[in-house]
Task: structure prediction
Amino acid sequence: MTRRQIWLNLGGLIALIGLLGLFYWTSTGARAVPALIESLKDKDAKVRIAAALALAEIGPAANAAVPALLDQALHDPVFYAGTTAAGALRTIDLVAARQVMTAYLPALQSDDVQTRRTACAMLESLGPAAKPAVPTLGNMLNDTDERVRMHAVGALGEIGIPATLVIPALAKALHDPAHAVRHRALSQFAFSIPSTEAVIPHLKQLLEDKDRGIATLAQSALNSPHRQAKDRASVYVTMLQMSRGANDYALHKLAQLGPEAAGAVSAVIPVLKDERPLHRYLAAEALGAIGPGAKDAVPALIAALHDIDPVVQGSAAEALEAIGTPEARGAADAYRKTSAQK
Amino acid sequence: MSNGKKLTWFTVTLFWGCVVFGLTLHGVVMIAHDAFQRHGAWAEAFQEFRLHLFAPGYNFFLIGILNALPFVLLAIFILFHLGTAAQQAPVIVSRRLSGVAGAVAVAIGLSTWAHLATTLHPDAQGALVYFFLPIYLMGLIPLGYAVGRLAGMLLFKKPAPPA
Result:
């Protein structure tokens, strides 16, 4: 081979690498949004689901997809396509996520069992964005249908906040007559929800359950690192500092810990300026759950009352009320008055 | 076709063959496996693969790139090693070809086996193979070359100098 031939082939390889890089660049991030919006209209449900998942990954930069996602969440005949669209909305636009919640809340009272099951699962896919639905979901634990109760437990676990309402509701579900419901509630305490001292007797009681699966899971819940770590908040603070990807999870957990997470205040305050509305919302929720221990966050929360996202504003106002200093209460009251006038 | 032209053609084919094989192996295995499970629905299997090219939790595109890395390095080595071989004595060319055959056999054999095994017997940690395979290949390809070259030295002896 001549030198020229060798370098020509090498040049071809570099061109191929460049083309692959270009393909990757155009197929990911905000640049992929128009094509993904088109995919949401595809006849194949798998294409719509994959598009919704990809849009969720892109986050707020996929804002142009909100109307199509909203339509998919509310009207898609394929259940999983609807839940993935709702899940995407919570990372892109909290207001749209709340619209989905508002649309499905009345369905919880439907006479049709399947409609109630679907509504619970849809609220589950919205995660912490569906916090206002927690009291109604708590009532669903009295539903006559076992699968409705199971989905309600799943939704409560996924929403996770406010822990003061979610944990007692899930503790109640630990004594549900249906095995599947007890199992789902136990799974929440074993893998997701931090069990408080009040829950421990319930878990210990289940160690004697006739069902070995339930008893083993109860043991897992009692041994759960969520319960055993001495300084649980510091674990989540480290996660918050180390990885942007861990933000959702770590903030959600800090919001569930409540006053115990007081040591995390300084790490949470900067998140109030994060680009993702879900992060800002969860940061405000975490500070609100910490309560008076988060008084250093008052100036940042007052600034968050002017956030572009009304859901974040509302959470910031609730957090200020929970912190309860005169300055915080004054700002929250002023915000409430202005909101009422609007 | 002269020997020199044959060697050039062979080198270029092997160079691009390595690059294309490395880039497409994961896709071909996934699509073939999916099509087999769907009783020959190749178009659907291809669509399924395309959907997961950049999907979170799948990233088939990045897996393809990761898998191609050692193959691209091997291809560049082949291009220079065989591309400049024509200036050498025929016995050296044969030994180089033998070494390259060893390297290519290890690269193709090991990666095909790893991808097939991961696809046919999936488990929770299976995807880790896509991360570690290129690292193993980087170490084993030179070993394959050394074995091939050794075999070449045994098979292709230098002609005895005239008495």
